[in-house]
Amino acid sequence: MRQIFTTALTLWLSLSGLATAQVADLRSTTQFRVCADPANAPMSVKDGSGFENKLADLFGKIMDRPVTYTWFPSGMGFIAKTLRAGTCDVVMGYAQGDELVQNTNHYYTSVYGIVTRKDNELAAVDHLTDPALKDHPIGVIAGTPPATIMAQAGLAKDMKGRDLMVDRRVMDPIGDLLKEVSDGALDAAVLWGPVAGPRIKDDPDLQFTPLLKETSGPKMFYRITMGVRPEEQEWKRELNSLLRRHKDEIDQLLRDAGVPLVDDYGKELLQ
């Protein structure tokens, strides 16, 4: 009976991810193994050009480990097929508070904003309840926090939605929206700063205006962390230490990429 109980307990611990020996075996000590989407520009790209790729390179250099990747499209099954499967050890750029992973300390905070042409009449708009937005076609990613505020502000008929949860190896909803703003098919697009800012930072015609003045509805700013497996406390502490000690380098990398950074309360754009 005791043998049966011990066997059952060991199996339960293994299945629940709580077996110490098994957890200890998951994380590589010779590589910096990253879980990433191969076509999530401008964040992660298989050719290494994304700013999350560059952040991974920075960490690999600091830790003196080669950076390796497990590639899998974002969306349903991403964590299960990558981090939880044990083929990689960290997800870069993960929103704070998601229960699928254990979050490190956040290493930047960014904000949603409005992309317009600099010569457009909406270029001065800096909040979603501005009456000037009415009767103008505005692109937005369906299901995102600003879409809720826009609907509450009576802009539902003006919203031109796109779905973000697509296979970005063959579809590019963010790129499509930005092109439509540039071409004049849309007067504006309301987008997450880290996906919009880097794409337009060198564009002479487009601008990104952060939404720092919203007073109702979902918040427009979010803290970004790295994601690790829930059981790996030591690994989280190691990453937190690196994030703290190399904050200036990380901030500079993000600024160079064009990511709009705000303070932890979403009140001030950081230069």
UniProtKB/TrEMBL annotation:
Residues 31-269 form the Solute-binding protein family 3/N-terminal domain. The keyword Lipid metabolism does not apply. SMART domains: PBPb. Keywords: Signal. InterPro entries: Quinoprotein_dehydrogenase (IPR022448), Solute-binding_3/MltF_N (IPR001638). The keyword Phosphoprotein does not apply. Residues 1-21 form the signal peptide. PANTHER family: ARGININE-BINDING EXTRACELLULAR PROTEIN ARTP, MEMBRANE-BOUND LYTIC MUREIN TRANSGLYCOSYLASE F. This is Quinoprotein dehydrogenase-associated putative ABC transporter substrate-binding protein. It comes from Paracoccus onubensis.
